[in-house]
């Protein structure tokens, strides 16, 4: 028995599940890579010989449009989630009322306990032409005709913001809770008002949480399938829905596998660029 195991006897028990999950993920990635390197045989579930033609098919306009739209939708969703989630996280951390804190926490986290499919179908009721949004706007005389929200990019983003908001609030609340209030008191003692103290002290110190929340929301949205599929209705093409159409509708598993790999590389590359661009912001929070 090694000294590390003698000091922590439960270490193998805790590490084993993580190793098994990692092994399953690696096996799945190897299978996807294998499919991507074999030819598509029309009318058959079997694959042909080795080829790189699947990757050249990724240059088709419909695929490039799906990759572009996926990045844009993920970026817009992460940005809107950050703008909406920051005040909620701030109120959650700074409010002194236990009751209000509990209400904010339950309201913000509850969507996590609902399945993605349940949440998505609930949004079809809200965003439909006769749904809650259009019915309310028409009742107050703000619109004459229903606003088309279903099967649009705007509807997909609204639903995705709802999905990612709990994660964003939790990460921002963790970052805000670790900020020493003495920094703000020191700024205010030197003449800074509440707004200036927030902009010059609290906001910069919370930047690590902002960057972490933004990148997590981006990655979370990139893997979303049910929401773009149901709310988009096939009119909003993203990587996940296109992989589904290629794999389970056309049974073109090789191209679906190559598109999955391209989506993974695109997601990792975009997140790497975001983290590099956000390094100066993260440095502001080095307290």
TrEMBL record:
CDD domains, A to Z: TM_PBP2
**Where's it found, cell-wise?**
Cell membrane
Instruction: Give all residue intervals belonging to the ABC transmembrane type-1 domain.
Output: 67-274
**Keywords carried by this UniProt record:** Cell membrane, Membrane, Transmembrane, Transmembrane helix, Transport
Gene3D superfamilies, per database record: MetI-like (1.10.3720.10)
InterPro entries tied to this protein: MetI-like, MetI-like_sf
Look up keyword Cytoplasm and say if it applies.
no
Give the Pfam families listed for this entry: BPD_transp_1 (PF00528)
Per the UniProt entry, what are the Gene Ontology biological process annotations, in alphabetical order?
transmembrane transport
Under the cellular component aspect of Gene Ontology, which terms does the record hold? plasma membrane
TM annotation in the entry: 12-35, 70-93, 98-114, 149-177, 197-218, 253-274
Q: What name goes with this protein?
A: ABC transporter permease
Species the sequence originates in:
Methylobacterium radiodurans
């Amino acid at each position: 028995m090694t000294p590390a195991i003698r000091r922590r006897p439960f270490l193998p028990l805790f590490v084993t599940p993580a190793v098994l999950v990692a092994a399953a993920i690696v096996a799945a990635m190897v299978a996807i890579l294998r499919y991507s390197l074999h030819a598509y045989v029309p009318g058959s579930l079997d694959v042909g010989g080795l080829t790189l033609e699947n990757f050249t098919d990724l240059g088709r306009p419909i695929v490039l449009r799906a990759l572009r739209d996926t990045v844009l939708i993920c970026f817009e969703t992460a940005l809107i989630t950050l703008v909406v989630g920051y005040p909620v996280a701030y109120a959650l951390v700074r409010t002194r009322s236990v009751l209000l804190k509990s209400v904010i926490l339950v309201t913000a986290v509850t969507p996590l306990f609902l399945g993605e499919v349940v949440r998505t179908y609930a949004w079809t009721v809200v965003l439909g032409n006769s749904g809650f949004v259009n019915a309310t706007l028409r009742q107050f005389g703000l619109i004459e005709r229903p606003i088309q929200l279903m099967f649009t990019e705007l509807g997909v983003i609204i639903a995705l913001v709802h999905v990612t908001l709990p994660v964003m609030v939790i990460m921002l609340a963790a970052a805000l809770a670790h900020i020493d209030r003495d920094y703000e008191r020191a700024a205010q003692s030197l003449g800074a008002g509440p707004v200036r103290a927030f902009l010059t002290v609290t906001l910069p110190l919370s930047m690590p949480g902002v960057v972490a929340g933004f990148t997590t929301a981006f990655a979370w949205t990139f893997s979303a399938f049910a929401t773009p599929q149901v709310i988009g209705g096939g009119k909003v093409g993203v990587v996940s829905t296109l992989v589904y159409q290629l794999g389970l509708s056309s049974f073109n598993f090789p191209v679906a596998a190559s598109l999955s790999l391209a989506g993974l590389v695109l997601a990792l590359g975009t997140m790497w660029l975001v983290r590099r661009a956000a390094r100066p912001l993260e440095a502001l929070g080095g307290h």
